[in-house]
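hey team, just a heads up i'm posting the complex here instead of the shared drive bc the drive is being weird again. everything in one block, sequence lines first with there labels, then the predicted structure for the whole assembly after. its two chains so it's a bit long, scroll down
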Amino acid sequence: MENNNIIEIKQVNRIFPTAGGDFQALKDINAGIPKGVLTILKGRSGSGKTTLLNIVGALDRPSSGEVLIQGKNICKLSDTEREKLRRTSIGFVFQSVSLIPTMNAFQNVEFSMRLAGIKEGRKQRVEECLKMVGLGNRVNHMPSEMSGGEQQRVAIARAIAPRPAILLADEPTAELDSAMAAEVTKLFQEMTKTENVTIIMTTHDTGLMDAGDMVIELENGVQVTSE
Amino acid sequence: MLRVMLQKLWHKKWMVLCLLLGSMLLVATVVSFPLYRNAAFDRMLTDEFTNHLAETGEWPARNEMVTISKKDKGGKAISRMEEMLNGLCGNLGVNEKEKIYYYLIDKKRATSTMKRNDVGEILLRIGYLSGLPEHAKMSYGEMYSDKGISEDGAFEVVVSQTTMVSANMLIGETLEFDSFKDKNGNQIRVKVVGVFEEADRSDFYWQVKPDEMDGICLMNENVFRDYFIGEHAEKYTITATYFSLFEYEDIRAKQTDKISEYTTWLKEESPFRSTMKNLDYKDIIDSFEKKQDRIQATLFILQIPVLILLCAFLFMISGQMYDMERNEISVMKSRGGSSGQMFRLYLYQSIFLTMLGVCVGLPLGTVFCRILGSAQNFLEFNITRELAIEFTPDVWGYVIGVICASVAIMTLPALKHSRLTIVKLKQSNALRRKSLWEKLFLDVICLGVAIYGFYNFSKNSQALVEDVLQGKSLDPLLYISSSLFIMGMGLLFLRLQPLLVKLVYGIGRGLWKPASYASFTEIIKNGRKQQFIMLFMILTISLGMYHATVARTILQNAKDNAEYLVPVDIMIKEQWLDNSGSVSSTSGTSTKKEYSEPDFGKYSKMQGVDSYTKVINDTKATVSVSKDKANCTLMGIHTREFGEITYLPEGLQEQHYYEYLNKLAAEPKGVLVSRNFQSLHGLKVGDSVDFKDADDNAFTGKIVDFIDYWPGYVPATVELDAEGNVVKKDQLLIIANIAALQQKWGLTPYEVWISLENPAETDGVYQWIEEQDVHVKKFTDKDSELGKVEEDPLLQGTNGVLTMGFIVTIILCGVGYLIYWIMSIRSREMLFGVLRACGMHKGELFHMLINEQIFSGVLSIFAAIGIGSVTSKMFVPMIQTAYAASNQVLPMQLITNQQDMVRLYGVVAGVMALCLLVLIVLVFKLNVTKALKLGEE
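-- predicted structure starts here --
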């Protein structure tokens, strides 16, 4: 069973030293996430979802425990190796709009492919991804000329374009209305199938729980359920 | 509101510090201008008076009035004059030094009562000189008594040595006037009680020297008044001379208007106009005012670019600060804050910051002023004479002005922002417009005006020379066109820079690494934001280079010229005694003047002397050319010694200076003559030329060559004729062998030209003059001549203003660029976070930022260097003409001091390095998760 999981989270703890003593953001988290599923990471604000996502995305390191991605312990990788991992295997979508303001939709998406070192077939892939998120007709628009939902969808296209194995989305729907949020979630569901990508998405929106193949719920840094 | 404001300021302390720095520098720069101007003008005015005193030996601050009172009933003429004299200094607003009355009754015949047979009748004038007992000492006899009348009823009088001799008087002798009666009808008798002389020869009281008082008997003032002035004046003819001396050192430059005005009135309109005689001070003040106007205008114009930069700096920083607060403002606005409230908040903030700036700026201004006053060269200071710094009302006027300006500039950007609501903010963010200057073609306009100015002035440099000579204030365009040129070129560069970036980007399209790619899109799309700072950099560096060159060129050319005009360390012309006094001129036969030579051996005893040579330097010689007689200067030299002691810059003439000397040495009867003998009179080498010295000794010389330049020689002078037109006068020069001249003419007065071991050590020379009791007729000290150049307020002020401007702009540029970069990086922190999360490593971020720096900062620097050197080449010669028009002999040389450039580049490199350091720190401190506001919960 273990070998089928693309992501393996083992006994992960994260302690932040603060002025008032250590704060345990995550406590003994364990989870195995199989390839190609959409996992919802659920919990209230401050429950530690983003911290966990950062650790899985190689942006942060756990205080103890380990995270295996495709069988490799990412916590033991050097910074450069982690950057390489992020470039090639992990895509990010952030809560607030995070497009590069000086690039249009096409360039934004293409840029992630440039970073991943992909040289061939970039144009085709960018168009494909933008079409996938429903923005095939807004290729040349600048971020400032698009709505929040559109920008978020460009961000998703950007994350998916280099064909990462894993897509991490931190509250991607938080700033969107519920119809738009449902649409984005639906897009993620489709992507798990069409792109065979493993997606972890954090949310505090209970309405979106059903969309996931798997739900991990956190409460004050402690895992409550894992399906 | 105050709390809100202070809190807001505390949050942005770096920006606030920058604003403080800006307003501080602005206040200091603005204030230092009138401070320096007032102090330097006071100093200059005093110098003008002192120079006059040194040149003429006369007290320059003097009014002299003469009136003759004849048959004046009640003596009104004299009492009116006395009344006027009493109020004169008060009316002029000056401090009185000395007031002298000198009254003389016309000549009367007198005979000695001693019945001497060695004297007959003599003509004598009696009178009185105020203050005589205090200023005279008695050579023989005694001063008249307080009573003034001797026991036998005669007036006690004192006489000068001259009178004593010419009238052959005896002390104690009584003389009787035959037809000269007193108020009671008695015959007037005078008793000679003493012979006086000056107690102190250098006392300016002696406006009339005792030597000049021939046949004059001076008596007690009270007695004179009692007998001859007032109701009795009617019977006598009295010549009344008045001298009013005042302290020139106390006169301030700002008083000159009043003095000049009152003097003009006295001279031209007042009832006393016919009595006014020597008014040297009026000429001094007039020439001072002319110079003052020119200096004031020049210094002010030179400051303009710096002031503009300072204002732009304030505007930029406050604009940037408000940009950072845009969100806050728009949120507050959207929540119901009124525009007025927002505006007031910023107004108070500006006032607060400006006031703080003033507190530091005023003392800093006095420091600036001192620095200005000690400027010796560009970026060189040496305090030789302290300036008297004073906060006069006009300085406070400047302070108020600069406060208003500073507040306005800081508040202005807020006006725009205070109207902003969040909706408008979003809208304006989406808009990308062309800058106003691009649409107005400001670059083209600036360049057009500048180039017009350039052609206009370089074509009409003669007109420029005339304006300078006539003391007209020069066309500001002369100064401004260089700044406009820099501005225009800078803007043009900004217009072209995006195209260049696109070109580079296009060339390497597809090959660029992600980091370069990201930076190019940033520059192309967001470059406009950087235009201001880029323009700022360009202006700073180009102006810095240009000003450095201007300052160096002006001063160095002035110094070179002074060195050329005074070619040796010391030139002494002694007083030569001749036989003219003893040879009777009435005999009709012109006798050859014979001189006795002062001891030449004493020169070997001079301390610190290196070598010396005799030079005949006769400026009143004449030459016969084309049947005309023309004035010329004759120089008789000992070729080897002269060559060793003097110096002529190389490359001025076809041949080396020594070649000419050698030619002269080879031909005892040969002469070197100035080029204008060839150009004006058509003479050629081998022709003979007849000339005479001032004493009419003739000589015929053979021309061995023509010279264009010669130590101390001015080929042509430009001066104003009576109608104020500029006239060019060619000056002829003949150089001959001194030995040949003296062989023909016998002993001829010469000057001694001396070079010292240490040219700056002239004390020994003065001491030697004193010890050897040398009677100096003319003395020139090169060191002090060069000192005059350095202390010339126009040159010193120019150096000072340009140096201060340079330092201020360097500070601004450094701080401005740094702040701009920090802000630009800070504002993009989130973007960097995204890039990092996408897998970009720190090195790539650097790469990206450095790429941006190269295409904005570094490119600007190179453009600025190019613009700066082009501007210098084009405009410095023009400015130089304006500074050195009248006596510039040597061709102008553009002086660029490598050290200045090294300093400038050093500072720029330092700033860039600092930027890089800040960049490194910021990038390393950049926390991805924080930047993206991840894990904030």
